[in-house]
Amino acid sequence: MEKIILTGDRPTGKLHLGHYVGSLKRRVQLQNTGDFDKIFIMIADAQALTDNFDNPEKIRQNIIEVALDYLSVGIDPAKSNIFLQSEIQELTELTFYYMNLVTVSRLQRNPTVKSEIQLRNFEASIPAGFLCYPVSQTSDITAFKATTVPVGEDQLPMIEQAREIVRKFNSTYGDGSDILVEPDALIPQNSICSRLPGTDGKAKMSKSLGNCIYLSDSEKDVKTKVMSMYTDPNHIQISDPGQVEGNAVFTYLDAFATDDDFPEFCPDYKNLDEMKEHYAKGGLGDVKCKKLLLNVINKELAPIRAKRAKFEKDIPGVVDILKAGTAAAHEQASATLAEVKRAMKINYFEDQALIDTWAKKYND
Ligand code: TRP
User: What confidence tens digit (pLDDT) does each residue in 204-217 have?
Assistant: First the structure.
């Protein structure tokens, strides 16, 4: 069986460090292993509209931001097809048929959807499109026969939903063979990367909380954000013992710093463990830790910024990349839709035997 990756992001804002450690970095690594036959990276604009239907302009503006973020972290259009979800009409058609294979109560039990409903105060009036977005996400995945879906941990319920629909589809319409492929999620190996906190120490980096460091932030922006990061509120004097756990600066260092960074940026310590030990004992100030973090983040972001600057100068070229990726995606999705319709026996005009039966019924 071919190994195929499908994944994507809603274009509701620029991508940030949480996206980077949670998924983007891994995608680039997977892309560069050469282990995959096909890779599709989707800008999920249609899904973004399920909770931004009244603000299409926001989505319009962020499509190019997400495309630039993808290209600047190293998604390579020669290896990965970057495409726009709304351009692939087949996805909508698949969703309509898949909706018959899932119950409303099952959708209401989806933990990610549940918490998003709360977050958006949708309780009293959930748009049907929003409730059904896990079904649409199943179409995104299955249209490409994806075997592997690299995502953040919060997307696990979506993959589970997709697997259920695939099984139901295959058992209902497969006639003994598997038409659709059950995907596997690929989540970050370490829990810090699964859920990078915001610069304010809150559980999640999120645009609405204003606690993000964006991949497109300038060195100056990053400096301001890192220097005002949440640490241990009880660590007032340098000599005070400090708390490492729950201290966002150390959480970020866990996610980004390697032993090699210490001789370069902070030669007083051999590694992060030594630094943490000193902080916990007392005698190490926040500013020193933040300076290390700033260096480490900038080291990671410098090549990304440089690449972004190049692509920003050629937006029509970026649009051409999206068009080419979309054409490739369209070809694959339309082949799958044809197979699905054949399996469901709703390919009437293709089916001469059926037409003959119709005719026979009245003309024998
Ligand atoms: N739900 C994903 C997010 O919010 C975006 C997405 C849409 C997606 N369709 C997908 C991710 C298919 C993986 C596979 O980020």
Answer: 888 888 999 999 99
